[in-house]
Amino acid sequence: MTIPAVKRYPPDFPVGTVIQLGHWKVTTEEIIQFATMWDPQYFHTDADLAKQSFFGGLVSSGLHTQAILHRLQIENFYVGSSIIAGRGIKSMRMFLPVRPNTILRGELEVLDLVTRPDGTSLVTTCGRLFTSDETLALEQVGEAVFSSHPITGATQQELCT
């Protein structure tokens, strides 16, 4: 594996920019596999028992849905950008249960960009996942630290504070 070349720095995605992140089809197998490892509740892991739940069937864990957003962000935005590290998640809301065979579409909106004296920028974004009928399924506001230009000699702790 090689480190991808940096092609995008914060000035390339000013406040208001919306990046399309592509699509992801959620499968039954993926829901069960993720939940078995990280959120083993019956309405995520057992399709038959899930029919008796509040949801009336198998649904994705909220953490799984969030992980899908994260994967789409990495593949379609962070790779090739000057990201150094995530700084935090300010908020995350799940608006509806995600069921097997749902196709999710992701987008990322730049909400704020603060250039700092150390050569980094703090970028606040809002990531969203929509169903195929454009219903909002998940929304997450987070912060990440990006290099404003190539950096040498700084420690991770210095850059992420």
Description of the structure:
The protein has a single domain (10-159), classed as Thiol Ester Dehydrase, Chain A (Roll). 25% of the residues lie in helices and 35% in strands. It is built from five helices and five strands, in the order E-H-H-H-H-E-E-E-E-H. The chain has a five-stranded antiparallel beta sheet, with helices on one face. The longest helix has 17 residues, at 62-78. The two termini are 29 Å apart.
Shape: elongated
Q: Quick check: average pLDDT?
A: 93
- CATH topology type: Thiol Ester Dehydrase, Chain A
Helix content: 10-25%
Superfamily at the CATH H level? Hotdog Thioesterase
Quick one: CATH class? Alpha Beta
Beta strands, count: 5
Taking all Cα atoms into account, the compactness measure Rg is: 18 Å
Unreliable spans: none
Main sheet: strand order: 1-3-4-5-2
**CATH architecture annotation:** Roll
- Main sheet summary: 5 strands, antiparallel
Tell me which oligomeric state these chains represent: single chain
- Number of helical elements: 5
Element-level helix/strand string? EHHHHEEEEH
Beta-strand percentage range:
25-35%
- Overall structural class, as computed from helix and strand content, comes to alpha+beta
Q: For the terminal residues, how far apart are their CA atoms?
A: 29 Å
Provide the number of structural domains.
1
Pfam family, one: MaoC_dehydratas
Family: Belongs to the enoyl-CoA hydratase/isomerase family.
Organism: Rhodococcus olei
Protein name: MaoC family dehydratase
